[in-house]
Amino acid sequence: MSKFNEIKIKDSHIDPFELKNKWMLITAKKDGKVNTMTASWGGFGVMWNKEVVFVVIRPQRYTKEFVDNAESFSLTFFDKPYMKQLGYLGKVSGRDEDKIKEAGFTVLHEDGVPYFEEAHTAIIVRKLYAQPLKEEFFIDTKPAVDWYPEKDFHTLYFAEVNKILKK
């Protein structure tokens, strides 16, 4: 039995600017396999009259293949004691090992979308839009220089919030 309860987005009290200093996991499923990555960039808002999240994923990240293949994915947030595991999940590729198992995390599913039992909040989202960032569209060129010396620009994803699960 899950320890999570669904809450309304208006009751979530998520401060997107407070999340700037916290990490989350972006998790998706492909061909029966689950993969995840640690992320800290993204946000919440309204787009096309829908409550959305936006996240960015670099092209070399293995999890990108999973997000691109899936209709939906999850964002999960954790308490401070899990920072070591989140650091590990951000450094090791799922191509090389079963990093979820090595981190000691337990995969749960909501409507077929994977998330983690150890999280305090899971946001289940459905992809709406994906677009690679391009150097020529940076109005302020400093981020392109500072954050993309290898020219490995993120793909931006907008995803509709379907459910927020909270312990």
Class from secondary-structure proportions = alpha+beta
Whole-angstrom Rg: 16 Å
The domain tally reads: 1
CATH level 1 class label: Mainly Beta
CATH superfamily: Electron Transport, Fmn-binding Protein, Chain A
Beta-strand proportion: 35-45%
Helical content (DSSP H or I, runs of 4+): 10-25%
**N-to-C SSE series?**
EEEEEHEHHEEEHE
CATH architecture type: Roll
Would you tell me which CATH topology applies? Answer: Pnp Oxidase, Chain A
Structure description:
This protein has one domain (5-166): Electron Transport, Fmn-binding Protein, Chain A (Pnp Oxidase, Chain A). Helices cover 17% and strands 41% of the residues. It is built from 4 helices and 10 strands; from the N terminus they run E-E-E-E-E-H-E-H-H-E-E-E-H-E. Strands 1, 2, 3, 4, 5, 6, 9 and 10 form an 8-stranded antiparallel β-sheet that branches. Strands 7-8 form a two-stranded antiparallel sheet. Strand 2 and strand 3 form a beta hairpin. The two termini are 12 Å apart.
Summarize this entry quickly.
The chain has 167 residues and is of the alpha+beta class.
